[in-house]
From TrEMBL:
Lineage, highest ranks first: Bacteria, Bacillati, Actinomycetota, Actinomycetes, Micrococcales
The organism's place on the tree of life at top rank: Bacteria
Gene Ontology BP terms: cell division
UniProt function note: Part of the ABC transporter FtsEX involved in cellular division.
Keyword Transferase: no
Family per similarity comment: Belongs to the ABC-4 integral membrane protein family. FtsX subfamily.
Main location: membrane
Domain ABC3 transporter permease C-terminal residue range list: 184-296
Protein name: Cell division protein FtsX
Length: 303
């Protein structure tokens, strides 16, 4: 097979169907951009989940003088009640589940609140009104229910909270956004496949006399089909390359230049993960184009 002749025929076909080729490029670009966004969002979910699971704590809040719960009938937790919680955390039942814990006295908890929320809160709350706290770091954060169950209803314990529960809405939002991106990407990919097939069939129809002559002189079906397949592959490759560039630009300017500075507490995906997605987009785009174009031209040649 003469490579130069095949490439020449493919390029000539691209010039003849410039408007359709531009449409294929744009549809491929948009669809694969959504694919890249979906992949990066799934990576972001996994990265954020792993980060916060390693750092999420179960907080055991002791009763304060302001507490009114059934376990706080005597007001602030006594030293004996605090020591009971400490002993339970260090006991044989819970200690294998616990990586470590931190105890904050009411004064330390008050200083932490003022430091994190600002001096404006200093006039709203005093150290005497603040509850003592235990911050428990688990070996396996999924076993937080064990800690919650162990201290629920214990005298002197006002509340037990699992910090991972506060992150569930974030993960749910990211997951929904990922599904939306996947759905849009799937629809756009179907559109791209159909558009490529239509473009190839129109291109073959416009060159039907050339194809008939090639058949008369004994050209093989493979030789006839290859230029048409390459037309779809070239257009899809350009669209995939543009999608890769869009993903890289989005991560660089949207994430590294903005989100990292605005929300630095979250480990965001970086340019390295974006570069890893680019080859996937190109392979997906080229493979779909080759399959779609090959199927379309084979069907047309059989008619």
């Amino acid at each position: 097979m003469r490579l130069g002749l095949v490439l020449g025929e493919a390029l000539q076909g691209l010039r003849r169907n410039a408007s359709m080729v531009v449409s294929v490029i744009l549809v491929t670009f948009v669809s694969l951009t959504f694919v890249g966004a979906a992949v990066l969002m799934q990576t972001q979910i996994a990265k954020t989940n792993a980060y916060f699971q390693d750092r999420a704590l179960v907080d055991v809040y002791m009763c304060s003088p302001l507490s009114t719960g059934d376990t706080c009938v005597d007001g602030a937790a006594s030293d004996e009640q605090i020591e009971t919680v400490r002993t339970e955390l260090e006991g044989p039942t819970l200690s294998p589940l616990i990586q470590g814990y931190t105890y904050l006295s009411p004064e330390e908890a008050y200083d932490s609140i003022v430091e994190n929320l600002g001096e404006d809160y200093a006039s709203l709350l005093t150290a005497e009104q603040t509850s003592a706290e235990f911050h428990v770091n688990l070996v396996d954060p999924s076993q937080s229910d064990v800690i919650v169950e162990a201290f629920t209803g214990v005298d002197g314990v006002e509340e037990i909270t699992d910090q991972l529960e506060y992150l569930d809405p974030l993960f749910a939002t990211l997951t929904i956004a990922t599904y939306i991106a996947i759905g849009i990407a799937a629809l756009m990919l179907v559109s791209a496949v159909l558009l490529i097939a239509t473009t190839i069939r129109l291109s073959a129809y416009a060159r039907r006399r050339e194809v008939a002559i090639m058949r008369l002189v004994g050209a093989s079906n493979r030789f006839i089909q290859t230029p048409f397949v390459l037309e779809g592959v070239f257009a899809a490759f350009i669209g995939a390359a543009l999608a890769g560039a869009a993903v890289l630009a989005g991560v660089h300017f949207g994430v590294e230049r903005y989100l990292v500075d605005e929300m630095y507490a979250i480990p965001w995906v970086g340019i390295g993960e974006a570069w890893a997605v680019v080859p996937v987009l190109i392979v997906v785009g080229v493979a779909l184009a080759a399959l779609s174009a090959g199927f379309a031209i084979r069907r047309w040649l059989r008619t």
